[in-house]
Write a structure and sequence with these properties.
This protein has a domain at 107-309: Naphthalene 1,2-dioxygenase Alpha Subunit, Chain A, domain 1. It is built from five helices and 16 strands. The protein has helices at residues 25-28, 125-133, 138-141, 250-283, 296-308, and strands spanning 37-43, 52-56, 59-66, 69-73, 77-78, 80-83, 86-91, 112-122, 156-164, 171-179, 182-184, 188-190, 206-210, 214-218, 225-234, 237-247. A seven-stranded antiparallel sheet has the order 8-16-15-14-13-10-9. Strands 2-3-4-5 form a four-stranded antiparallel sheet, with no helix packed on it. Strands 1-7-6 form a three-stranded antiparallel sheet, with no helix packed on it. Strand 9 and strand 10 (171-179) form a beta hairpin. It binds fe (ii) ion.
């Protein structure tokens, strides 16, 4: 007689061949984010004469623009900087490293055009960044996205792994081979050919995560790069800065701004990131969780964050760590950015 089998929600080793949630205690403990990092909190143009109150990594603070610069604080004051059109606040113990340590080099180039939206969202920041780097979900969640109307979507991916860039600042999602269509029992060939869909060639997107809370989404087909920050607010909320970045000047910058408001804002931010990804992140309630093979992208990030997240600065040595880092774009397998 057959007996019902209770599904095991957290096998010791799941199909991802990685341990489930909780295996990396520093990451598991970082519900309010990792301390000792600079975090972007808003566009600089949003802070005018009126002070702004916000919560960052569980701490409520006031940001105010004064004649001598921007100040952030509550009972104590926090280091603040303005770079790449954004306001950055350091949360952690003294001494703070230079703010440039925590900003991708490509955002600091003088010809960088940064567009984007900032939004307070439901869900812990880890769910949001895990969703961003996740290999599996796009193939079903985004299949009906408006931006994919004329593009073929992959059905599955062979060989998913995570690898640090040569400068060890990024953790890149590496895919063996993207499969555009396949043969399935009872269904047959799927998906069906649609003449209006552009055929999938190579890897459609290139993703990499960077501490403390950044996911970069790029790829040669796109022509611009998304920098998506999921800044910890409290255990149940994060502040998303969904940035669209291009390196250009003059008329090129004007054209990119126009493209952002006519196309990227709607197709990428509103109907893709906000209506699909964020909707799912807001509904997440885990652990428990059941992992499957493509979740190696998530467990790889958890493990890397647990092992490499910055600890409290103990000596001035941390201040000189920057040296002359190479851009992630020079490294293989991390793809070019921007
Ligand atoms: Fe997504």
């Amino acid at each position: 007689m057959a007996t019902a089998v209770e599904p095991e929600m957290e096998n010791e080793l799941s199909a991802s061949l990685e341990a489930p949630a909780g295996a990396w205690p520093r990451y598991a403990a970082a519900a309010l984010g990792f301390r000792n990092y600079w975090y972007p909190v808003m566009f600089a143009r949003s802070l005018r004469n009126k002070p702004r109150i916000l919560t960052l990594c569980g701490e409520k603070l006031v940001l105010v623009r004064l004649a001598g610069g921007i100040q952030a604080g509550n009972a104590r004051s926090y280091p603040v900087a303005e770079r790449a059109g954004l306001i950055w606040v350091y949360v952690g113990d003294d001494p703070a490293p230079p703010v440039e340590d925590d900003i991708p080099d490509e955002l600091l180039r003088p010809n960088t055009v940064v567009m984007g939206a900032v939004e307070l969202r439901k869900g812990n920041w880890r769910h949001a960044i895990e969703n961003c780097i996740d290999e599996g979900h796009a193939k079903y969640l985004h299949r009906t996205a408006l931006s994919q109307l004329f593009k073929e979507m992959p059905v599955w991916t062979k060989g998913v792994s995570m690898a640090p860039s040569e400068d060890e600042r990024w953790l890149c999602r590496v895919r063996g081979q993207t499969v555009a269509e396949d043969l399935y029992p009872r269904i047959g060939q799927w998906p069906r050919k649609r003449f209006w869909k552009r055929q999938l060639r190579g890897q459609p997107t290139e993703l990499a995560n960077r501490l403390p809370c950044l996911c970069r989404v790029g790829g040669p087909a796109r022509g611009w790069t998304a920098y998506e920050y999921f800044v910890p607010v409290d255990e149940n909320r994060h502040r998303a800065l969904i940035l669209a970045v291009l390196h250009t000047r003059g008329l090129g910058a004007l054209a990119f701004r126009l493209k952002y408001w006519l196309n990227i804002y709607w197709l990428h931010y509103w109907f893709f990131n906000r209506s699909q990804d964020q909707r799912m992140v807001g509904l997440m309630n885990c652990p428990p969780e059941r992992l499957y093979r493509p979740d190696r992208s998530i467990t790889g990030w958890r493990k890397w964050a647990h092992e490499t997240a910055r600890r409290a600065p103990q000596s001035p040595a941390i201040l000189s760590r920057r040296g002359s880092p190479r851009l992630a774009s020079e490294a293989n397998p991390c793809p070019a950015a921007g």
